[in-house]
Amino acid sequence: MTDNETTGRSIFGARRALALAVTVLPLVILLAAALALGPTLGPTLASHWSSLGFPDGYSGTWSSFVVVAAIVVALTVGSWVVLFRVRSRGIARIWVGMSVLVAAILALAWAVSAGATASASQPKHAELGWGLLALVAAVPLGAVVFWIIDGSSVPDRSERSVAPMPLRPGDRVAWIGRSGSVLFLWVGVVLMIGGVVLALVLSVANEAGEVWIAGAVTIIAGLAVISLADVTLSIDGRGLRLVSSLFRVPLFRIPLADVSGVAVETIDPLRWGGWGLRFSGSGRAYVTGRAEGLVVGRTNGAPTAITIPHASDAASVLEALIRR
Length: 324
Prior knowledge:
By secondary structure, the protein is α+β, with helices and mostly antiparallel strands.
């Protein structure tokens, strides 16, 4: 790696840290508004406004909060994944900038509606007033992230051809490797903490039903993401099998008879539908980021991609088993 490349990565690391801090602001705004205004809010929220600034639509206070919070959390976590895993900074700045913009608009819209409702004797008497101008603050947040992230890109890694491992008649061979990402662990922990926060906020509003639903769904989602933080790939005469190392949950299996070929490639998350365990038009995939991995062709279905260290060794063993 040249000195210029090292300096470029260092600068991007500092910009990325600043961008990460900005992506959290919409969630902070939303939670701060809920905690500050929650005790004064009733079950109904003025949520839609006419051109004159008077309410013409209403929704459940905390049910609307759960929906907005879930979207903001998803956009925030998605921004983190893009900042850490997308190698194209041009794509990252557009994706994260738009995510922060949408998250900020949703968070500020709920906070402004909650503030107007809390200051009125009844939701139907609420007045939007100057609160509409608060939504303008969402634009600078998205623009700041867009400016922070440099638009240049890190060069892609080159692909390599792999020769099959030489086997004699009667030889038995197997390969076991592990893959994963600490980011999945942190995302899962954040989701579970978010579920607890939602439950606490809704408990203050005495909406037990929504507490159980929101908490259970968020915690289950967090556990699902955590299960992808560490996986084990095994290849032997039976085929290929990927399981969660933490919970021993099988993720997918490909019988050897269904394998038509294998290649070592740089796995592109955008091609395979994103990060984590993916099922898209391109096929199945376990993706931890833009990194080297296996692409396994199948005779009875779409290909399967797996980002895994030492992918060439795994491909060599699998190719030898296929040819035999």
